[in-house]
Amino acid sequence: MISLNNARLMRGEHVLLEGASLTIHKGQKAGIIGRNGSGKTSLFACLTGQIGLDAGDIQMPEDLRCAWMKQETAGSKRSALDHVIDGDERFRDIESQLQKAENDHDGHAIARLHAELDKIDGYSITVRAEQLLAGLGFSTDSFSHPVSSFSGGWRVRLNLAAALMAPSDLLLLDEPTNHLDLEATIWLEQWLIRYPGTLLLISHDRSFLDRVIDHVISFEYKNLFLYRGNFTSYEIQRAERMAQQQAALEKQQRRKAEIEDFVRRFRAKASKARQAQSRLKELQRMQDIAPAHIDSPFRFEFFVPEKSSDDLMSIKKAEVGFNDALIKNVSLKLHGNSRIGLLGFNGAGKSTLLKTIANQMPFLAGDIVSSKHIKVGYFAQHQVDVMDMQASPMLMMQRLDPKVREQEVRNFLGGFDFRGDRVSEPIHNFSGGEKARLALALIVWQKPNLLLLDEPTNHLDLEMRHALTVALQGFEGALVLVSHDRHLMSNTVDEFYTVHRGQLTAFDGDLDDYARWLQDPDGTRTGNTVKESKPSSSGAASVVVMDKKDQRKQAAAQREQLAPLRREIRTLEQKLEKLSIELASLEDKLGDATLYEDARRNDLTELLRQQGYCKAELNQCEEAWLIKSTELESLSE
User: Fold this and answer.
1) Can you give the three-state secondary structure of 121-141, one letter per residue?
2) Which positions ≥6 away from 612 have C-beta within 8 Å?
3) Residues 384 and 501 in one domain
4) What is the CATH number of the domain that holds 229?
5) Alpha helices for 475-600 (secondary structure H)
6) Which phi and psi angles does 24 have, rounded to 5°?
7) 85, 92 in Cβ contact below 8 A?
8) pLDDT score for 281
9) In which element (H, E) is residue 476 found?
10) CA–CA–CA angle 582, 587, 588 (5° rounding)
11) How far, in Å, CA of 534 to CA of 202, rounded?
């Protein structure tokens, strides 16, 4: 058991915690959440003894084995494999003693040390280290490369592997997914689920948190609050608490209306019932937890594009890459309302494809036609590294729009939590998260009709990720997104494409299907769901050949068969639209602050009754629509 008692923690003159108490029990897996700068990393430093509390105390078992992930590693000549094995200090100690005993020809010591090696499973340590490296995305060839040959992001992966290698009762991980792609994130997720010790995890990836943790420790008002359950459970609990505060009620109703408006617009465009079902459930869940984010400092939205086109870009038989083609035979149409998520292993070419579509590098071949109205907003994976570090947010905005008024800029940047003197400070003083927020703000200001976002959440905290998700839901242009943040992907895109082995392929499924696909990416499935032909008596696949007349007859018969089902779906869609409008009207009325005065209690009760009835009918209608749409899709295949 680990306990903090009446803890005070300061950074300079800034108080992070005041009178905070917390108990963490053995085997718990807790996510540590809070805004950037709230003290999460400082709390880890206290637990590892790197800094002390300013008041209060921490109690931990004396024999507790603690492992944590270092954020930086200097270049060295040690191989990647040795660096990971170094994480097990006990093994290295026994190895060193054994070497000395062998040099001294001390048979008794040699026997004892070999027994200790066996006890700590030391004979398999190389295999275990290789498994960690492979799981985190390292190629077999790179195991022997020196640490100095890896970039900063890959060195962080090495540090993560070393932390996982260390035998521990308490594991502290600070943003372990920051430099991981989706595939490595899913692997780490499964590793941590199996981890038998106590886990404290700082992460801004809500899907990752949801799958790994069973408690949430939240920094709120210079104190620590413990919630039971995963991140979704925390949001619901916090939403319920916030909903009891009458002052926040009007904002809650407005946010719910925004979510429901997006649900209506999405439903009208949904073409794949299976994806629609997954998406609608996510959106409805977001609606329920919206109050938990009422006190977020971030609130912004994308402007309506000044011009647009139904066909923004047409790409046919293109090749993408540098000197040699990385992806071949790329065919893709970007419509005015396209919302595409790109999936694929690290290095497959997702970023290169986005960069090429953004006209930052040329297509190597192919037929590319762009609308004269296309206006691209491009966020590169390393966007923050190419900003003018001497400029201020105000100056950056004025460079984009020299005629803009200062107060207008301040109002706009306030939605990204740049307030007061912060708008005039040079960017080199900003954190990575602040730079990323500013880069996004600059893109929003330019009113693009095509957004190309490559890992936009890398430096963002949970509240800013939530705000970005909400803003992208309301974006009225086209979107192509690369992200390892599954929550962002599942809530903002309508269709997925995989980039795999040099091919861009439509993926018929959701992110859960993709996680299963990762287990066999080169098997019978290659992005689309493959239906195998049944073998004939001779063993070969039978092929039925029909002439065009028979094909037309069959198509007509199928249309006639499906006509009643299509009519049912249209009727349900009309009913859904009617109920959605009715519900929006009721919730608009519930936003009236005077409704919560004692004199109008009966009016409030009646409106809440109507709201509940309307929601129940809407849910039943929606469920019927999804069932019928799924049936239609299966019969149409």
Assistant:
1) CHHHHHHHHHHHHHHCCCCHH
2) none
3) yes
4) 3.40.50.300
5) 486-492, 511-517, 548-590
6) -115, 120
7) yes
8) 58
9) none
10) 95
11) 50
pLDDT per position as a tens digit, 364-397: 999 999 999 999 999 988 777 778 889 999 999 9
The number of beta carbons lying within 10 Å of the beta carbon of residue 423 is 21
Cα distances (angstroms) measured from residue 303 to each of 102, 298, 312, 409, 471? 72, 16, 18, 14, 10
- Per-residue pLDDT for 550 more than 60? no
Examine the pLDDT at 527 and tell me if it is beyond 70: no
Last residue of a domain, one of 139, 162, 185: 162
SS3 522: coil
Give yes or no for residue 635 having a pLDDT over 70. no
Domain hosting 110: range is 76-162
Q: How confident is the model at residue 90 (pLDDT cuts 50, 70, 90)?
A: very high
pLDDT at 254: 62
Q: Kindly report the CA angle at 373 between 371 and 379, in degrees rounded to 5?
A: 95
Q: In this structure, are 448 and 487 located in the same domain?
A: yes
Q: Pick from 529, 484, 450, 524: which is nearest to 342 by CA? A: 484
Measured between alpha carbons, how far is 617 from 439 in angstroms, rounded to an integer?
A: 43
Residue 201 has phi, psi (to 5 degrees) of -130, 120
Both 439 and 494 in a single domain? yes
Same domain, 508 and 398: yes
Same domain assignment for residues 135 and 181:
no
Q: How far is CA 456 from CA 20, 166, 435, 491, 571, in A?
A: 34, 32, 11, 15, 40
Mean pLDDT estimate for the chain:
82
- Give the C-alpha separation, 275 to 514, whole Å: 12
Find all residues with CB under 8 Å of 290, minimum gap 6, and list them.
239, 252, 255, 256, 259
- Burial pattern 339-353, b for ≥16 Cβ within 10 A else e, equals bbbbbbbeebbbbbb
231 lies in a domain?
A: yes
Do 334 and 477 lie in one domain? The reply is: yes
Neighbours of 317 (CB within 10 A): 12
Residue-level pLDDT at 544: 36
Distance (Å) of CA 314 to CA 249, 309, 335, 493? 46, 12, 9, 19
At which of 162, 188, 206 does a domain end?
Answer: 162
Q: Which residues contact 26 (CB under 8 A, 6 or more apart)?
A: 1, 169, 198
Distance between CA atoms of residues 77 and 85, nearest Å: 14
Q: What is the four-CA torsion angle of 82, 87, 88, 90, rounded to 10 degrees?
A: 100
- pTM summary value: 0.60
Per-residue pLDDT reduced to its tens digit, 529-544: 333 333 333 333 333 3
Reported confidence tier of residue 467, pLDDT bands at 50, 70, 90: confident
Identify whether 304 is part of a domain. no
Domain count along the chain: 4
- Interatomic CA distance for residues 369 and 314, integer angstroms: 5
Q: In this structure, are residues 227 and 216 in contact, taking their beta carbons and an 8 Å threshold?
A: yes
Same domain for 7 and 98, yes or no, is no
The confidence score (pLDDT) of residue 482 equals: 94
Is residue 537, in this structure, part of any structural domain at all? no
What does the pLDDT read at residue 104? 87
- For residues 116 and 233, membership in a common domain is answered with no
pLDDT at position 543:
34
Distance CA 36, CA 272 (A): 38
Look at residue 426 and tell me if it is in a domain.
yes
Q: Quick check: 218 and 33 in contact, CB under 8 A?
A: yes
